[in-house]
Amino acid sequence: INEQKEDNRNDNLSISSINTPSIFNFKLVRSFKLLNAFTGHSNIVWSIDYSTFDGDQFIYSGSGDKTVRVWDVDNNKQIQSFGHSSFVLCVKFSLYRYYNHSRNVICSSSYDNIIRFWDINYNQLSQVFNGHTGGVIGIEFSSFNSGRYLCSGSFDKTVRLWDVEISKSLYVFNGHEDIVWCIDMSPLQSNNNNNDNKINDIGVIGGSGYTICSGSFDRIIRIWDIETNKQLIIFKGHEAYVNSVKYGSNELLNTVLSGSYDKSVRLWDIRSGQQIQFFNGHTDRVCAVEYSPFVANNIKVGSSSSVICSGSLDNTIRFWDIRSNKNELYVIEGDKEDNGIFCLKFISLKKKENNNGNTNNDIHNLNLCYGSSQGPIRILEISKN
């Protein structure tokens, strides 16, 4: 436990480590222009992640072709590939390994029931989590303790919580009646009394108040309390499989966003346990949902964005104003080769050159990266007026 308390001092690192795009007015968006396309996967790209280290920028991807791939953004090429024995369904960069062990490690989950950790520096497998008795779909690292904890959802209908440092399964959450397809961990919570460290002393993990959200083929979204290992809330309303769930942050901390096979995007209030918004416009199943770095009409929800986005098998990415059930704000049509959007992520890439032709590492552009049904991964540059 003392070792875990030490980890809490690094919590801020988990917030600042990824280049989080700043919020700006959606009306200022002029276009979404293709910046890069990575080709090499021969099947669905189920998941993508992003990190920077040593001044370089990397995209990570997991695919139905059974591979995890590392892409060098600056040089526009694949630099590494790792293999599972079945479909790779999720990939995440491990901030804990980066900050606590100075290693660049990707975590991947697969239909082969296993979660693997790949050391990029040594180009080898460094850690394995066995425990699920079905394929492992979604994985997510904790926002607290610098990402020391990992949650996972599986075909075996369970959610698990793992300790990355000791390679141990801590809890198994039972309750879903079908495949747990998607998962998220609640964002970092601030301690209002900086002189009181009690919040970091409670329980095995020291994550008092933190929760896990899971979406299932049983059409239900469940919220689990990490401290007590119990179910807190259930959200019912989707008419088909739940494909994607995401927690909000800041003033939207008490909301959950979801996308489903029923073609809808929904927003839920954790405090009331009720659906608060319904977005209908996709013509095929919604595979991915995200809180975007945009605001609509220059109006924020507190200090948070008021715009969300969703990717679908209808080959579109759509933007919605969470304060309204009206039609979408904007639609991006995917390339014909994509044949469906399976995952998406907002990233902030450093600008390669300034007006003098020199590299400028201080200027970053907002970008939207997505993975497709047919294998291409595309990075769209968001141009502003």
From TrEMBL:
For this protein, the record's SMART domains field holds: WD40 (SM00320)
This protein's superkingdom? Eukaryota
- Which InterPro entries does UniProt cross-reference here? WD40/YVTN_repeat-like_dom_sf, WD40_PAC1, WD40_repeat_CS, WD40_repeat_dom_sf, WD40_rpt
| WD repeats, residue ranges | 38-81, 81-128, 129-172, 208-234, 235-278, 279-330
SUPFAM superfamilies this protein is in?
WD40 repeat-like (SSF50978)
Alphabetically list the UniProt keywords.
Answer: Repeat, WD repeat
PANTHER family hit by this protein: F-BOX AND WD REPEAT DOMAIN CONTAINING 7, WD40 REPEAT PROTEIN
Stated name of the protein? WD-40 repeat protein
